[in-house]
Design brief:
Layout (H helix, E strand, L loop, with lengths): L5 H10 L6 E7 L3 H11 L4 H9 L4 H20 L7 E19 L5 E17 L1
Length: 128
């Protein structure tokens, strides 16, 4: 087969695929900055400590990230057969998603733009 053949390209891409358990939430209705406050607090921690941090964090993002973290743990246990005690948060990051543009009426017929930001949040776990 030629080097750039479609099946060969797919095979090479699958060989380089990250096999660590993860969970991803797309189009979360919060800005990247607000999500990163919580993600920075749990990065590198073991999963039980990370769950405790997000449960008692008063921010809105923590409830969303808690659900995502529980999903990643379930993926690790069910799909990869890993033990919960050995897991830790290897990577967690938020990328910017699309922005909904809305208009706020102001005085004298003016219109101010309001940007409702979205983010894509990813949590990747690994074994110790």
């Amino acid at each position: 087969m030629a080097k750039g053949h479609r099946t060969q390209v797919k095979r090479e891409r699958n060989d380089q695929k990250d096999l660590r358990p993860s969970a991803k939430l797309s189009f979360a209705r919060m800005s990247v900055q607000k999500a990163c406050f919580v993600l920075d607090a749990i990065r590198g921690k073991d999963v039980n400590t990370a769950l405790a941090i997000v449960q008692y964090n008063p921010r809105y993002a923590s409830s969303v990230i808690e659900k995502l973290l529980r999903s990643a743990i379930a993926n690790a246990e069910n799909n990869n057969g890993l033990r919960r005690e050995n897991l830790y948060v290897a990577e967690c990051y938020a990328n910017q998603g699309p922005i909904m543009k809305r208009i706020q009426p102001r005085a004298q017929g003016r219109a101010y733009r309001i940007e409702k930001r979205m983010s894509h949040i990813t949590v990747v776990l690994d074994e110790k």
